[in-house]
TrEMBL record, chains A, B:
It comes from Mesobacillus persicus. This is Magnesium transporter MgtE. GO terms for cellular component: plasma membrane. Its main location: membrane. It comes from the Bacteria. It is found in: Cell membrane; Membrane. Acts as a magnesium transporter. Pfam families: CBS, MgtE, MgtE_N. CDD domains: CBS_pair_Mg_transporter.
């Protein structure tokens, strides 16, 4: 019930039929009066459903500035930007790009070939081109790469009245007018105040009296995940970005941080599932298989290695075939425990909680956890196997194997990503299936090692 | 480098030693002048490091209103709220709760016993108690449960001047003043405008002329995940919450949505890893084991079931021990593929992409994906086993088993969560290890089924 009502809430805003009709009849006035009244996200949703011919009409109907607004909200695959831009005349496209917020324009340009970028920047208006060029320099996933330069900065020796005056004049181009940054003559960041502060204070009050001078800022090379964490903790709507001399370079707004959070969450999740990229939509089986096969093939070879290890115990298996029955159980339990420990460690790294702890403390806690889960599951298995097979020794063998396998798997699951993170190695390698396969191997070695050593007791 | 600079950026704001000294020397003025200058998040971080005696000083030094600000930013375990509140006098605690934003107060009260809630609500100021009582009614994880009632509403027949007047008077208590909602005499939501709109327009302009009348709103029973999705798509700083007659009930601000996104991402991630709760920090092995054991025990029984299935093929295994060697490979590959498909489906459900598709289209795409990955891995395995064991029939057997196992595992991984979601069953059951274990069972049945049927060809 709530869902359908929600849909109607959303749908009532777009009169698609009217829009399509005006498009087809070339009725520019009807189209514009309806279309420009929509939220940019709804404009973009409508635009994405059009075919190329219809889109050509839209470029004709909208100014580059109006198109910029729509384009910032476009959700298409990274490799499609180039195609859509190619539909526009180069001047129109360049004009549109220079009318976009600099950070969004940079996101689009980052998906194009270098030649295309250069050609758009050449015909673009000089100021925008300069701004964009500077932003293009910053490394991906840093604060610099997601910041925008369209912020409002004022001087401390102004009054509220003059600050409001500046704010009104900059309102059309600034990405947010709710935070105003205070800088000195060198553009050093000295304070911040919100529009709320400006509104509730009298016109003659000096900015220096009401500004907050302990500004929380991020440096331009900071990891975007850390920026997201600060935005979450401080509940800001924007964060200032500074260089090492504390000069204000740009701001990062909360809407961009929401996208970063989605991206980072999706990234952690993909790694745990062992899949290359979950962000883009699978349109057909081939594109889906392309993303899954690389990991599967690697895991296949690891699996063959596991198989060859078991192969070494063929003699043991030949004599006591019942041993094979418990291989998936032991390997599976080790894999499950390892994945749990991995998930805890990766989330701990992501939220910063684990950073604060000493590595020895984590090791001892995880070892303790492994002992508790190992003991519980080990004892449980021993009894189940004993009652099922009537063989206490076999039960004990499987139980003890699970005991050791769970301890080692817990430690491996938590320590591998942690150590890799501390060594600044990309933890992508420590993905879920990888840890699972490693733990398969370890647990099977433990199981067959013990079984082979005590072979003579396995009376069958 | 960037990290250390970041830390100094953050740390320079808090002079902990000064604060601790003023606390110990009972120097209330020094403490207040330093402490109240901090961002509420930094106040909360400092507060969390104190022991009980020191915290009692803080309650003495700060007014309930000042404490409310800190308390909203407190990041402690859910079960600790009750202890911290018990340290305060009941009147102080009630006063503080009534000074908190209603949504944050509700979050805290939700963690207390019913008796405690009632007693706080009784001594609290009537208006706040009424507001909080209404919010307490909404079901968890709905828009109603995360909304706040401290919004600014105006009438359409006002001027910009009078709207700004209302805004200034409500600024101290409203959770955001950047969005102003326009309602008619019945409190029906008819429009919205931003503070930016108010600022750039002349004082005499009527609100009805500049307001945006196609308001995007959510209904009060809407799932919080859907609310987060809309906030992300539309880049709003707040969303209005309405009932079925479109009466404005409250607003949801972006900072709360960031917390929802974290919670939902963490939730999806926990399910994939098969772990109960990743949000709270594991302080010791016992609390860690408590969260992991429930799943492990369930999986243990499922694993025993897998073992009993293999047990039925003991005769086959007795004759051809080499078959056991490939059990982990086949089960592992099926588990990995299933987890990948599960991850794609769960993310697709979370982002809403899969909602738009017909279920038959998804089935055929996933089946296609399974055929491609199955064929690739199947052929690869056939050759590897052939070259390793010199037995083409054995290679073919393992290859064909992998081919079928991958197809079934891909379908199971994607369809189980999808069907459960459509049937409105909690998809928590379809967690990663569960799907993995199901796929273990299916793949082993396929493998031993084929092996037993063609037993006579397995010449060893």
């Amino acid at each position: 019930m709530s869902e359908s009502s929600q849909e109607s809430n959303q749908k009532q805003h777009i009169d698609k039929e009217l829009l399509m009709e005006s498009l087809k009849n070339d009725n520019i006035e009807n189209f514009r009066s309806e279309f420009l009244d929509l939220h940019a996200y709804d404009q973009a949703s409508f635009f994405m459903e059009l075919n190329e011919e219809e889109r050509l009409h839209v470029y004709h109907f909208l100014s580059p500035e109006e198109m910029a607004n729509l384009f910032e909200n476009l959700e298409i695959e990274d490799d499609e930007y180039s195609d859509v831009l190619a539909e526009m005349s180069p001047n129109y496209a360049a004009d549109m790009l220079s009318n976009m917020y600099a950070d969004d324009a940079v996101d689009v340009l980052n998906e194009l070939d270098k030649d295309q970028v250069v050609s758009y920047l050449t015909i673009m208006n000089k100021d925008s081109a300069q701004e964009i060029k500077e932003l293009l320099h910053y490394e991906e996933y840093t604060a610099g790469s997601i910041m925008t330069t369209e912020f409002i900065a004022i001087a401390a020796n102004q009054t509220v009245r003059s600050a409001m005056h500046i704010l009104k004049s900059k309102a059309p181009s600034a990405e947010t007018i709710y935070y105003v940054y205070v800088v000195d003559e060198d553009r050093t960041l000295v304070g911040v105040l919100t529009l709320r502060d400006l509104i509730v204070n009298e016109d003659d009050v000096m900015i220096s009296e009401i500004m907050y001078d302990r500004v929380v800022s991020v440096s331009v090379g900071e990891d975007q995940e850390e920026v997201a964490r600060m935005m979450r903790d401080y509940d800001f709507l924007a964060l200032p970005v500074v260089d090492f001399q504390n000069h204000l370079l740009g701001i990062i707004t909360v809407d961009d941080i929401i996208d970063v959070m989605e991206e980072e969450a999706s990234d952690d999740y993909s790694k745990l599932a062992g899949i290359a990229d979950l962000d883009s939509i699978d349109r057909n089986p081939i594109s889906a298989a392309k993303k899954r096969l690389p990991w599967l093939v690697i895991l296949l070879f690891l699996g063959m290695f596991t198989a060859s290890l078991i192969g070494r115990f063929e003699e043991t298996l030949d004599k006591v075939a019942i041993l094979a029955v418990f291989i998936p159980l032991i390997a599976g339990m080790a894999g499950n425990t390892g994945t749990q420990a991995l998930a805890v460690a990766v989330r701990g790294i992501a939220t910063g909680d684990l950073e604060k702890e000493k590595i020895m403390k984590i090791i001892s806690r995880e070892a303790g956890t492994g002992v508790i889960t190992g003991t519980t599951c080990g004892i449980l298995v021993t009894f189940i196997v004993y009652f099922w097979q009537g063989d206490l020794f076999l039960g004990g063998l499987v139980g003890i194997s699970i005991f050791f396998a769970l301890i080692v798997a817990t430690l491996a699951g938590s320590l591998v990503p942690l150590i890799m993170h501390r060594l600044k190695i990309d933890p992508a390698v420590a993905s879920g299936p990888f840890i699972t396969t490693i733990n398969d191997i370890i647990s099977i070695l433990i199981y067959f090692g013990i079984a082979t050593a005590f072979m003579s007791y396995l009376t069958r």
